[in-house]
Amino acid sequence: MAASVTSTSASQVRIVARIRPVLDSENDTDVVVSVSPKANSVSMPNPKNEKEKFTFPFHAVYGMESDQAQIFAEVSPTLKHLFKGNDVTIFAYGVTGSGKTHTMKGNKAAAERGIIPRLLTAIYRRGKDLEKKSDGRVTMSAIMSYYEIYNDKVFDLFEAPEKRTLAGLPLREQNGKTHVVGLMEKEISTLKEFEMLYDKANSNRSTSATRLNAHSSRSHAIICVRVEIHDQQTGETKVGTVSCIDLAGSEDNRRTANDKERMVESASINKSLFVLSQCVEAMSKKQSRIPYRESKMTRILSLGQNNGMTVMILNLAPTKKFHQDTLSALNFANRAKTIEVKNDPPPVYHPPVAPKIGAVSGAPVRAFGMA
Ligand code: ADP
Ligand code: MG
After folding, report:
1. Rounded to two decimals, what is the model's pTM?
2. Which residues pair with 169 in a beta bridge?
3. What is residue 131's predicted lDDT score, i.e. its pLDDT?
4. Any known ligand binding at 100?
5. Complex ipTM, two decimals?
6. Ligand number, closest to the Cα atom of 23
7. Is 320 annotated as a binding residue?
8. In the structure, which protein residues have their CB atom closer than 6 angstroms to any atom of ligand 1?
9. Which ligand is nearest to the CA of 103?
């Protein structure tokens, strides 16, 4: 059995799942998530009735043994779209501890580098190639910005944490586009320069989280690289932006939160993730109205506007401790996608409610965080 994409090229949305391995540091070694890479599906028992099994199809699934190079190979085909002047957006969604930062940023060792540093390497390589092949007629510039959205406020990660104003940066509409007023943009000429700025901004992120008595897992970190391709001969410039988003943890903090501040945080995370799922669903189903204006993050990203390509990576932790949150995450992805299953589908749980169009299997859709 193979799951097939309804129409990748037209829908421009891919939703893939990645399951991280059980960590040495984990006491809980009870694995509840299983994958079928052949069927592109993820299965898990119902936490409330272990005899019942839920199966969710994806465009692709990556099991515990998958490495950073394989995950990058999943997103690298978007580069040609970027260089044609289209926008590319890559999200990492999942509960805190499921591997979002590992997937996006990774570690310094060459094999452990995540999507973001690998993308930058590939962008520079492609830019150099273009320049060489055109004898210097075509040149590339890359301009980077990096910010986080915490409690619906935008903070520049290039700015030193002590310089932050608590109100965050304002937004302004110009020519139908939303701009973050005062957000720093840095032209980066070399990979080394990128690494330096990226490391500094990441350390700003953790320092400011500590100052706010918060945790970086409760903010969305958004890195944008605008790639401009100039053709000196024709005077033409193509502009495409790649945005990589390490989303706030999708766990329902309202179950455990007992102070007001955490409740406010949770409400704002839930709202922005909910709008994101609605946007991805609308894009997947090729609806003409994408509700990207309903949240700050999707509005700044202009999600789905500029012939965009979107890849959503659903990060999953395999063990029992995460069972309920993993089910919520799978439900989130399930409502956001349109994937058909071909041939003989395996026995799956059929929800007592009518399945959504395109969602052929899986648990009843429950909006995450909404009891
Ligand atoms: P998140 O950002 O979703 O909170 P992290 O990326 O910080 O989660 O991952 C949690 C822990 O699991 C980290 O220690 C990280 O190094 C480890 N980890 C995550 N994914 C993998 C993976 N694919 N292989 C090995 N370790 C991983
Ligand atoms: Mg993280």
Report:
1. 0.88
2. 154
3. 96
4. yes
5. 0.99
6. 1
7. no
8. 20-21, 23, 94, 96-102, 217, 315
9. 1
